Amino acid sequence: MAATLSLLLVSVSVGLSNFAGAIGIGLSGINARTRIRVGVAFGFFEALMPIIGLILGEAVAGYIGHHLAGYVAGGILILTGLYTILQGRQVKAEETGPRELQTHRLIITALALSIDNLAVGFALGGLDIPIVLAAATMGVVSVAMSLAGLELGHRLGRRVEEWSEEIGGAVLILVGIAIAIGILG
After folding, report:
1. Which partner from 14, 15, 45, 170 sits 20 to 30 angstroms from 162, CA to CA?
2. Contact in structure between 117 and 172 (CB atoms under 8 Å)
3. How far from 1 is each of 4, 8, 82, 115, 181, CA to CA, in Å?
4. CB 105: neighbour CB atoms within 10 A?
5. Has residue 75 been placed in a domain?
6. Number of structural domains the chain divides into
7. How far does CA 108 lie from the centroid of its chain?
8. pLDDT band for position 98 (50/70/90)?
9. Helix 103-124 to helix 32-64 angle, to the nearest 10 degrees?
10. Domain, as residue range, for 112
11. How much is the pLDDT for 97?
């Protein structure tokens, strides 16, 4: 139960970066085709990266033991959360005029937003979470948050986008602390 809660909280937390990215895309105008393209690209990379990280994390957890793995997992999530907050503060505002979302830009954006899932997947590898479940959960949560971000970006503007990276980073840090001290995981 605790591992499932950890997975869900982490999925929402890392999905917030997609939420933020989707808000930025939504600001430039969206249609049904854009919604599908963003949802598929963001969901694919959000599911792929934790698989790679989980495979590596499970291998390492076998070597260091599950007790120490909780501290390592917590530390990785805390560092990832701090990095997410720092990156969120360094992002410069882009032009908001209408423009077509180019495929190569979408893929690069989706890949960049999912890099943190490699570290998160690595951290979750020490928590005995099935790889397919973790990847599916992160992918589904990512698609849902991306679609919500597109819609909010389209309707609300940049104010919401400005804080989503910080909120996502803070949740990662809190989940990391909870895993490290044994509350979750």
Report:
1. 45
2. no
3. 5, 11, 26, 27, 17
4. 12
5. yes
6. 1
7. 15
8. very low
9. 30
10. 2-180
11. 45
In the chain, the amino acid numbered 51 is: I
How far is residue 92 CA from its own chain's centroid?
20
Q: Do residues 61 and 74 lie in contact, with contact meaning Cβ atoms separated by under 8 Å?
A: no
CB of 135 closer than 8 Å to CB of 49: no
Q: Where does residue 176 rank: exposed (0-12), middle (13-18), buried (19+ CB within 10 A)?
A: buried
pLDDT, tens only, 107-138: 887 777 776 677 777 777 666 777 788 888 88
Q: What is the largest CA-CA distance in the chain?
A: 52
Nearest alpha carbon to residue 81 among 172, 17, 8: 172
Position 9 pLDDT exceeds 50: yes
In a domain, 134, yes or no: yes
Do the domain assignments include residue 42? yes
Encode pLDDT of 66-91 as tens digits. 566 667 667 776 877 787 677 667 65
- Cβ distance 59 to 165 under 8 Å? no
CB atoms within 10 A of CB 115: 16
Residue 97: CB atoms within 10 Å: 8
185 lies in a domain? no
